[in-house]
Design brief:
By secondary structure, this protein is mainly alpha-helical. The chain contains 22 helices and no strands.
Length: 540
């Protein structure tokens, strides 16, 4: 009889064992002892009886040894000797002749590996139990463990996909919080795959009391943008008011929500409110560059080009020089062009040619070289200088790219951790872990590579499109200058006849300083332009 590790629930059901991470048949565990064979010489009853006696003695000895190994592994587990426990549980899980011993060792193998800090290895062994189905006595515990590992490792690919494929009616027996998190993960997959109706269905399974509720509401808001933007605004504003330490990465979620709110209000043509939403993002935060650019558009549409140019000036400051924002230069050129400030337009066009045309060429060179798809993620590794800094930064800020590259990094760390543990590495468990990690890394490198390659192509295409727009702006600028010369229009007199006004001051705590060419961090984000208009007065 075996003992039970401390603090763990009793088995609920009994079942089989699945294997093959990406599918396939369960591992073969049928014993060859006592199996019948055709066309073998018959044996006498006495000899047959002797063979059966030997078989019974062998089985009894094997069973006793199996129980001894399992009990020792349980003792090691309870004493915090997780490496020894994991090796013992793995031995029983692989060689057990008693099914109850095997399924118990299978679950506590996943637990022990998790306590060793090997999250993927742990998830794999939980996944074997999940694939065996609800009849497995540790099925529900394994699902809980898989969800916990997915959350701890910020996994947005492997874990959600496994849970999605395994989803069934029996999930309703899980603790409400575990089920709510699974519903959110599956909704996220559905949203990214364009399965919006399915995503909405699963989001309804995330109640307000769940720690996943703010993230689920954010997805709900994104879905509402398409069919009910007014309701989306209400949802986003409610998320910005959420407080509580139990919610994961609430600061990052607020940043994304403020962006989404600004975009929704902009689409509703509520430009002043959109500008205020973009203004709510913290300065120098992860997505502040996007807020500056999109906020500039909102200011321009709200008939405040000075505020728009101020945001663009901040975006072009040396402190944000590593941001990828080619559209911002085109917008700056358009604002100047609208006021016939043609020298300034040409300066901006020159900046675009200097900064972004070379980036386009570098990106195309990488794509045209057609490196193996599984190597693209290495472009974001420290020390790799093949990508321009702005392109690296742009990719690194993409939540999906970050999740995949971080996941690959964790796989490398797990592999190194196993290799550094000499005792573990030389065991069958160590060899199995290294093999599993290697295969998973190869698969994830393919997934990440395809996604990153697509983003690089998108960036190159964007610059190419903007380069074409720049040519049109340049043509219109030349045309405008020609018309001024032909009309003998006095541009200098037109500009000298206008006064620059001082922009309105923000709330108390700010001071007015005219820009003198120096950039100070505490001033970035607060610039505002006053503009003159060099265009000839329109005739009545």
């Amino acid at each position: 009889m075996t003992t039970q590790p401390k603090g763990k629930g009793a088995p609920r059901r009994h079942g089989g064992h699945g294997a093959g991470w990406l599918g396939g048949s369960p591992r073969a565990r049928t014993s060859r002892i006592g199996a019948g064979a055709r066309n073998q010489p018959s044996v006498s009853p006495c000899l047959r009886g002797a063979l059966l006696l030997l078989l019974c003695l062998f089985s009894a000895r094997a069973g006793a040894q199996e129980i001894s190994v399992l009990n020792q592994a349980i003792e090691d587990y309870n004493d915090g000797k997780h490496q020894k426990a994991a090796v013992g549980f793995y031995q029983v899980e692989e060689t057990a002749t008693v099914e109850d011993n095997r399924v118990k060792a299978e679950y506590y193998l996943a637990q022990s590996v998790n306590k060793l800090g090997l999250s993927f290895g742990s998830f794999f062994y939980y996944g074997q139990i999940i694939k065996a189905g609800p009849a497995h006595p540790y099925y529900y515990k394994a699902v809980e463990g898989a969800v916990a590992v997915t959350e701890q490792s910020h996994d947005e690919v492997l874990g959600p996909n496994v849970l999605n494929k395994s989803y069934n009616d029996q999930f309703g027996r899980l603790p409400p919080e575990v089920l709510a998190k699974i519903n959110y993960y599956i909704a996220l997959l559905g949203y990214r795959a364009g399965k919006y109706d399915e995503a909405e269905q699963f989001l309804r399974g995330v109640p307000p009391e769940s720690a996943a509720f703010p993230q689920a509401q954010y997805l709900t808001g994104l879905l509402l943008q398409r069919k009910n933007p007014e309701q989306a605004v209400k949802v986003f504003r409610a998320i910005l008011g959420v407080e509580g330490a139990r919610y994961h990465d609430l600061a990052g979620l607020r940043e994304l929500t403020a962006l989404a709110l600004g975009r929704t209000l902009y689409a509703l043509q509520r430009f002043g409110e959109a500008a205020a939403a973009y203004q709510a993002l913290p300065r120098f935060s992860r997505h502040w560059d996007e807020a500056l650019f999109e906020g500039a558009y909102a200011d321009l549409m709200a008939d405040d080009p000075g505020a728009a140019l101020g945001k663009l000036h901040s975006l072009h400051s040396p402190h944000l020089s590593d941001q990828f924002a080619p559209e911002s230069l085109n917008l700056t050129a358009i604002i100047y062009h609208q006021r016939c400030l043609y020298p300034q337009v040409r300066e901006v066009i020159a900046d675009f040619n200097r900064e972004y045309v070379p980036i386009k060429e570098q990106l195309k060179q990488i794509i045209d070289a057609n490196p193996p798809i599984e190597t693209y993620w290495q472009l974001l590794q420290p020390g790799d200088t093949r990508l321009p800094l702005a392109a690296r930064q742009h990719l690194a800020k993409n939540e999906r790219v970050e999740a995949m590259v971080s996941y690959l990094g964790r796989l490398d760390q797990e592999s190194a951790k196993v290799e550094r543990d000499a005792e573990l590495a030389k065991t069958p468990l160590g060899a199995d872990l290294l093999d599993l990690i290697g295969k998973q890394k190869a698969l994830m490198a393919q997934v990440a590579g395809k996604f990153i390659k697509g983003r690089l192509a998108d960036m190159a295409h964007l610059i190419e499109v903007l380069d074409g727009d720049k040519e049109i702006i340049g043509f219109e600028t030349t045309k405008g200058e020609k018309e001024m010369l032909e009309a003998n229009f006095d541009v200098k007199g037109r500009l000298d006849g206008q006064s620059l006004y001082r922009p309105p001051m923000p709330a108390a705590g700010h001071e007015y300083w005219p820009f003198d060419g120096e950039y100070w961090p505490d001033e970035i984000g607060y610039y505002k332009y006053t503009l003159k208009d060099a265009c000839a007065p329109k005739k009545e």
